[in-house]
Amino acid sequence: MESDKVLLEDGEFRITELMATIALDKSTFVQSTLTVIEYAIVKTPLMTLIITSFLFSFSRICHDFPFNSVLIERAVEPPPAQLDLDSVLHMCSCNPVQIREEVSLLLEDLYLRLKRSLFAGVSTAFLSIFLPCVFVPYKTSLGVPQKVLVDETWESELCIVVAFTAFSLYITYLMPLNYLDLLHRSAVHLGTWDQIEGPKIGQTGQTNWAPSPWVAQCLYSDGETVQMPDGRCYRARGSAVLRTVAAEPGCPDHDKFFMLCGRPCTIINGMCIFEGALIVTQFWMLVLTIDWQHIVTLVLLMFANYLLLAKLFKDRVSS
Questions:
Q1: Model-level pTM?
Q2: N or C, which end of the chain has less CB nearby within 10 Å?
Q3: In whole angstroms, how far apart are CA 186 and each of 172, 190, 263?
């Protein structure tokens, strides 16, 4: 394969060199005619032949080895899609299995939105701050080396601020009020469990109390105690609105989901605190800087964060 590539490149170079030698000291019409002959009659048919041969071989491989074809199809599989908030409604059910399935779906979608927001923040900072430094000219148009002063400290600080700003903008866009309400409604039906001490053995050798084993198809009331197969005991703790529990005892995903979404304002409060801390940090950077271009950059970023904080505060008041 390497030898064929070398021969192909060598042959192409010889064809180009031959045409250039023939067209030397010729008229413009002759040079144009030789160029058409070079590309239309020689190079284009050869390239078409090579590409056709490659595609034919590739199709035969996919036909003869279907497992490889499956791998290729999986490699180009589209990324997972987010939930369409216009067509998704909360399933108000008393079936604990359905409640846990709904929570698992919402939790997966929540993680997906967080990942995309993080990617948006990091990619925005990289493309807007670090990537332009690659195109900084270190030589003049005459080829003379020149020294370009790059403030790496300011560049790093600005990258962090831009990343956090882009993340907050994107996460606010991906988590509107109706989505937070959907998460809260599911968390209300889910409930949670608090781990407690197991039954103690009395002086007579009998246990003071014996919790019943946990049943996946059972919907528990607030305050009930269950025991898992490994001996751990839990007490049900429902939400203030609905005093039932459908969560699985000891499941970290269910505990995280109830902690984040059990109260309607937990996530929005966290977003407001994060945005306020970001604005305070930018104001502190603005006080310390003396360069006019840094001041303009920080003022523009603070303006965007002020608008976002106002929007979050409005959502907090109306939620």
A1: 0.67
A2: N
A3: 20, 6, 11
How does residue 223 score in pLDDT terms, banded at 50, 70 and 90?
Answer: confident
- The neighbour count for residue 70, using CB atoms within 10 Å, is 11
**Calpha distance 160→152 (Å, rounded):** 12
Beta strands in 216-273 (DSSP E): 220-221, 225-227, 233-237, 244-245
In the chain, what is the straight-line distance between the N-terminal and C-terminal CA atoms, in Å?
A: 66
Q: Each residue of 6-19: pLDDT tens digit?
A: 334 444 445 666 66
Are 163 and 208 within 8 A, CB to CB? no
Neighbours of 268 (CB within 10 A): 21
In b/e form, how buried is each residue of 303-317, taking b as 16+ CB within 10 angstroms? eebeebbeebeebee
Quote the pLDDT of residue 270.
92
Q: Which of 191, 277, 183 is nearest to 226 (CA)?
A: 191
- Phi-psi map region of 25: left, alpha, beta (phi>0 left; psi -120 to 50 alpha): left
Highest mean pLDDT among 81-85, 130-134, 176-180: 176-180
Residue 85: Cβ within 10 Å count: 13
Phi, psi of 262, deg, nearest 5: -65, -35
The two three-digit tokens of residue 202, written as one number: 């009395």
Q: Which residue has the higher pLDDT, 319 or 196?
A: 196
